[in-house]
Amino acid sequence: MAEHFILLRGLIREAAHWGEFLPKLKSTFPAAHFHCIDIPGAGVHYQTLSPLTISGIVDRMREDYLALKLSSPAHLIAISLGGMISVDWMRRYPQDFKTCVLMNTSFSDYSPVWKRLKPSAFLGLLPAPVQKGYKKEFTILKTVSNSTSDYERNANFWSEITRQRPVSVENTFRQLLAASTFKTKGFKPSIPTLILASTNDRMVNVECSRAIAQKWGVPLSENPTAGHDITLDAPEWVVAQLTSWSPLKLDSRD
Predict the structure, then answer these.
(1) Is residue 98 packed enough to be buried (19+ CB in 10 Å), middle (13-18) or exposed (0-12)?
(2) What angle do CA 40, 41, 44 make, to 5 degrees?
(3) Cα–Cα distance for residue pair 200/213, rounded to 1 Å
(4) What is the pLDDT of residues 188-237, one digit of tens each?
(5) Domain 4-248 part of CATH 3.50.50.60
């Protein structure tokens, strides 16, 4: 039976923002199938109004999941806001997934707001919602990426994504509101779960990921150099963590 992966991005990001990480992942698990589901208000759904709650977002995204008609539960990989979406999804529909990997995420009932969004990151991102194109993406990169030598290349790539599928200012703030109010409601995953984090994340304090791993009693692996967008800065490292994690030692013949 074929293995399936569901990938969820973060705030105002879409499937294309996985960049080089996705082909690396596909080459590592050549027999698996990969499905990127966009958040309402971004990607293929950029003209859709984003719900004001994480539960509302999940309801919309699960429609895309069900349309895939998968024959078995999928492996879930999510980053940032995608991690919050994952928790609500697993809590309400536990039958949909068999493993879960969360990267650089945070929850309001585990960590205070100043750790979930560092004050310096808030100030740095403040101009972004009203900026456009290259300038906007460069502003975002200065907060979410530590790979300064790649800023120009990535800003050009990201600005082309947003030129094709722009996220509105309204949807940006609607997603922010949903993220800021999300709580786990005491949820702990019943499936194998791995937490990946960036020790030097300049947007979200790494203590948020540490708190999740401690409360859930699940493994945590930290990258010492990558920024918040860990799959952008360290795609090979993330893939290595996945392949060394026993629940993802898949049979390539499947």
Answers:
(1) middle
(2) 75
(3) 17
(4) 999 999 999 999 999 999 999 999 999 999 999 999 999 999 999 999 99
(5) no
